[in-house]
Specification:
heterodimer; A: alpha/beta; four-stranded antiparallel β-sheet; 10 helices; 10 strands; B: mainly alpha; 2 domains; two-stranded antiparallel ribbon; 15 helices; 4 strands; globular
Chain lengths: ~240, ~375
């Protein structure tokens, strides 16, 4: 299974009696950018939270790098290289930008390398460099998304999971965020991108999955999905 | 605070800060003598209590200010510490259980203190464990209940076996001793007569300094930053690799230990404990010290502790004579006036200084930038 960094088989997640995810299969190869699209309440965020260890599966298997993730606590998964940029960004509003980024490296001990990575993030997001001592809560939505992404990258992930990075952002900022996602993908990182903006997500991704009320209804290469009638009708307004 | 002074305190050179430190230390060491001479010995005792409150407020600041966990039953840990020393340092056990403890336990204060801190810390975990999933108002309600449970236990545990002596409390607790020196009697050192309240003042001063240093270290540490991350966004914090469960328990335990230490000192100082001292009102007082002073800022919390410990005493000493002089009789008793002023002060604070009298630098920056309209 060396061609699969992440493999999910028959994953089920339930809140009380309500099944939010009803047995999905999904995989990501190293270096692949995979989009998971679908409407509100389809179970996309639930899937990501379960992968990050914040929710517990009701059934099914999650394999990461050949090992089962099912019994590994959320905070241990970060050490294994799984990073989540949560929905709504989840920045630490009353900490400075620099402290936010340093929190991203919480699971690491290599002080010198952390300092280097911090500079790397400032190079990737020059806007954050100018404001490094400002409180993160005072930034605009787009800048906060940058903080959230840079913070996740500070853990040196192998799998980056982004939950609705375009949510609530101005169109220009959305373009910028997606450019950055492409840049990160070009560096060879595996990315699982959850989006409601199906067109943008599929344009950036190698492959895509379409999720509807807890199940995956379609999957395939991004181009195919973009061209398919079902996706056109349901998500692209065509 | 005037800007010049703030600048001096925060940006002053190393030399300046050293001078400040020695001046402050000198002033604090002289404080009991000056207070004694100007206001009378009763006020030295009030200063002693103020320091117990400061320790409590700094302990609660870890839980509320750093980790963002609203705790309305904090005084319970103070009670646990106080009863630990009361039980081991008084004849109560010998009277209640003559078979088990014919002579009581009477361990040295210095042995009981760390044990009491550990027991209080254990109670902190006991409170933290079932409330891990709760936040905000819901957590406040459970902690409030916890505080009351401890108080009611202390109040009623004189039957079926007399562990706490119920509402009468436990008296004749051994005074704190340092070697052969009892802090309960006037001692002469270098030819200077130091009354008991002065001795306790210096002891409490040392403990307060210790608690301040530990608080400062914690704030700047990896643990402190993890607590703040949990306060800001728990989901994101655990996505950063923070073990939120353990760190929340640690916050409860650390806060409880500070409370326990303060309680142990209280029992030794007072010589008497009863459940009355650990009412819900006391928890709220300590929380007000933290909030009024400036949540998350050590200097602010100390300021809040001093003010709220001393103001009621000023009222007690001034309200009755003032009314007697003006009206010839007492119309309002100081206790109810205290609550009135207290409530008024809280409302005014929330309107005009929501971050506290002396907010942390971060909070101040946040409010400043809000005013400036930075987005």
């Amino acid at each position: 299974m060396s061609d699969r960094l992440l493999e999910i088989r028959d994953l089920q997640v339930a809140y009380g009696g309500i099944h939010a995810v009803k047995g999905i299969d999904l995989h990501i190869a190293p270096g692949e950018l995979v989009a998971l699209i679908g409407s509100n309440g389809a179970g996309k965020t639930t899937t990501l939270k379960t992968l990050a260890g914040l929710l517990h599966p009701a059934g099914g298997q999650i394999h990461y790098d050949g090992n089962s993730l099912n019994d590994i606590a959320a905070h241990r998964r970060v050490t294994l290289g799984i990073a989540l940029v949560p929905e709504g960004r989840g920045i630490f509003a009353r900490l400075t930008i620099a402290d936010n980024l340093l929190m991203g490296a919480y699971s690491r001990n290599d002080q010198h390398e952390i300092a280097t990575d911090l500079e790397r993030m400032y190079a990737l997001f020059p806007r954050l460099a100018e404001r490094r001592n400002q409180l993160a809560g005072t930034l605009s939505g787009g800048e906060q998304q940058m903080v959230a992404m840079a913070r996740a990258l500070m853990s040196r992930p192998r799998l980056l999971m982004l939950d609705e990075p375009s949510m609530g952002l101005a169109p220009l900022m959305v373009q910028k965020i997606f450019e950055t996602i492409r840049d990160i993908a070009a560096l060879g990182m595996s990315i699982l991108l959850v989006e409601q903006n199906a067109r943008l997500a599929l344009q950036a991704a190698n492959r895509g999955y379409v999720m509807e009320s807890g199940t995956i209804t379609l999957s395939g290469a991004s181009d195919e999905l973009l061209g398919s009638d079902a996706v056109q009708r349901a998500y692209l307004g065509g | 605070m005037p800007n010049a002074l703030r600048q001096f305190l925060t940006h002053g050179g190393k030399h300046q800060r050293q001078v400040m430190f020695w001046l402050l230390l000198g002033a604090l060491l002289l404080l009991p003598f000056i207070t004694d001479a100007l206001l009378g010995r009763g006020w030295v005792r009030i200063a002693d209590f103020a320091m117990l409150y400061i320790m409590l407020a700094l302990g609660l600041n870890i839980v509320v200010g750093y980790a963002g966990l609203l705790d309305l039953g904090y005084i319970a840990f103070f009670a646990v510490g106080a009863y630990c020393y009361a039980l081991t340092g008084s004849p109560h056990l010998a009277i209640a259980f003559p078979m088990l403890f014919p002579d009581g336990i009477h361990l040295s204060f210095w042995i009981v203190l760390p044990l009491a801190a550990l027991v209080a810390g254990g109670f902190g975990v006991l409170l933290g464990a079932p409330t891990l999933r709760l936040r905000g108002d819901y957590l406040a309600i459970v902690t409030l209940g916890f505080g009351e449970i401890i108080r009611i236990f202390l109040n009623n545990l004189n039957a079926p076996f007399n562990l706490t002596n119920g509402p009468q409390g436990i008296s004749r607790i051994d005074p704190i001793r340092m070697g052969d020196i009892s802090l309960n009697a006037t001692q002469g050192i270098f030819g200077i007569a130091l009354p008991s309240v002065h001795l306790y003042f210096y002891l409490f001063l040392a403990f307060t300094a210790l608690v301040i240093v530990i608080s400062q270290r914690l704030e700047k540490s990896r643990i402190g930053r993890a607590w703040m991350a949990i306060r800001e966004d728990e989901i994101a914090a655990s996505a950063m690799g923070i073990n939120t469960r353990n760190l929340k328990l640690l916050a409860f335990a650390m806060g409880a230990m500070f409370g326990g230490i303060s309680g142990t000192l209280f029992a030794g100082f007072q010589g008497f404990v009863s459940p009355e001292s650990f009412s819900l009102m006391e928890s709220i007082m300590v929380l007000c010290m933290v909030v009024l002073g400036g949540m998350g800022n050590i200097a602010g919390v100390i300021l809040g502790g001093v003010l709220l410990a001393i103001l009621p005493e000023i009222l007690r000493h001034s309200v009755v004579p003032l009314q007697q002089a003006l009206f010839g009789k007492t119309l309002v008793d100081p206790e109810s006036l205290r609550m009135l002023l207290f409530g008024g002060a809280l409302i005014v604070m929330m309107l005009y200084r929501p971050a506290g009298l002396w907010p942390s630098r971060v909070r101040r920056r946040e409010l400043d930038s809000d005013e400036a309209g930075v987005v």
